[in-house]
């Protein structure tokens, strides 16, 4: 009987811990949350990091010296890469965000009605390169233009971030650091 009386409080404590864990998990995992609001929050968090790390470097003076501009850009990129060493695809383009963005982009980038848009994107797209989060955008690769009709359906971005389409994939490009912040595969069909 003594053993049973000692285990009863232990079981009650374990049950209480399990109940608290379930409530905590539900509170931190929003159900039905707006993916675009989540995307904006993730972009804002990235930009807070970017701005903080940009302030840590020497202020960039207005110059035409390409070497000085590149050195400043590479220094900022190195600080961001170190701070985001564990960054992975989907950190910003989460599954829910990716689903929503594809829904928004499909009318603009898939099907026969969007052939002109796809052709204009392909005109300026760089040769294929390996997409990697936190990697530099290839220095000599052209930056594809994203047509206005595509930009209109995408959430707006802060000044230092831009959308780019590389082949069929959407990337989030940090302009000042020349980094690939995140990417989303296959937003545009190859042969529609």
Task: Please explain how this structure is put together.
The chain has helices at residues 2-28, 35-56, 66-83, 95-109, 115-124, 148-153; strands spanning 161-166, 169-174, 179-184. Helix 2 (35-56) packs across helix 3. The protein has six helices and three strands. The protein is 51% helix and 9% strand. It is globular. It has a three-stranded antiparallel β-sheet with strand order 1-2-3, with no helix packed on it. Strand 1 (161-166) and strand 2 form a beta hairpin. The protein has one domain. Mean pLDDT is 82; it is low at 1-31. The protein has 192 residues and is mainly alpha-helical.
Quickly list its features.
6 helices; 3 strands; mainly alpha; 192 residues
Question: How would you briefly describe this protein structure?
Answer:
It contains six helices and three strands. By secondary structure, it is mostly helical.
Structural class designation: mainly alpha
Helix content: 40-55%
Q: How many strands in all?
A: 3
- Uncertain segments are 1-31
**Structural domain tally:** 1
Mean pLDDT equals 82
Give, in spatial order, the strands making up the sheet with the most strands: 1-2-3
- How far apart are the first and last residues' alpha carbons, in Å? 75 Å
Number of helices: 6
SSE string = HHHHHHEEE
- Bin the strand percentage: 5-15%
Question: What overall geometry do the principal axes of the alpha carbons give?
Answer: globular
Q: Compute the CA-based radius of gyration.
A: 23 Å
| Main sheet properties | 3 strands, antiparallel
């Amino acid at each position: 009987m003594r053993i049973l009386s000692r285990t009863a409080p232990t079981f009650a404590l374990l049950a209480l811990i399990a109940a608290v864990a379930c409530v905590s998990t539900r509170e931190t995992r929003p159900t039905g949350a707006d993916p675009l609001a989540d995307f904006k929050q993730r972009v804002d968090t990235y930009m807070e990091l970017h701005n903080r790390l940009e302030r840590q470097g020497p202020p960039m003076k207005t110059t035409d010296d390409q070497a000085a501009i590149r050195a400043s850009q590479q220094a900022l990129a190195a600080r961001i890469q170190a701070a985001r060493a564990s960054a992975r695809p989907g950190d910003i383009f989460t599954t829910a965000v990716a689903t929503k963005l594809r829904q928004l982009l499909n009318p603009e980038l898939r099907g026969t009605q969007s052939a002109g848009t796809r052709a204009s994107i392909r005109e300026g797209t760089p040769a294929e390169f390996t997409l990697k989060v936190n990697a530099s955008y290839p220095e000599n690769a052209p930056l594809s233009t994203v047509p206005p009709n595509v930009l209109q359906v995408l959430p707006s971005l802060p000044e230092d971030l831009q959308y780019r389409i590389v082949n069929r994939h959407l990337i989030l490009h940090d302009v000042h650091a020349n980094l690939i912040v995140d990417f989303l595969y296959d937003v545009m069909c190859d042969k529609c």
